[in-house]
C-alpha cells in the first residue's frame, strides 16, 4: 500500500509540474474559447501574479493580444 501511495504522489507531482510549464496561449486556453480565464491562468503562478495588469479591458479574461504583452 505504501508503494501505491508513493506512486500516486509521483504521478500527481509530475502532472502538476507539466501544468506549470504551460506558458503559451493555446495551451493555457484549455476550453478553446479564444481567451484565458482566471481559472485557466491559475496553473501558471507568474501569469496569475500579473493577470489584473494584463487584463486591460477588465473583463476577467486575457485575449491573445493582452496575453502577448506578458
UniProtKB/TrEMBL annotation:
InterPro entries: EF-hand-dom_pair (IPR011992), EF_Hand_1_Ca_BS (IPR018247), EF_hand_dom (IPR002048). The keyword Transmembrane helix does not apply. It comes from Pseudoalteromonas neustonica. Pfam families: EF-hand_5. Residues 1-21 form the signal peptide. Residues 42-70 form the EF-hand domain. This is Calmodulin. Keywords: Signal. It comes from the Bacteria. The keyword Nucleotide-binding does not apply. Coiled coil: none annotated.
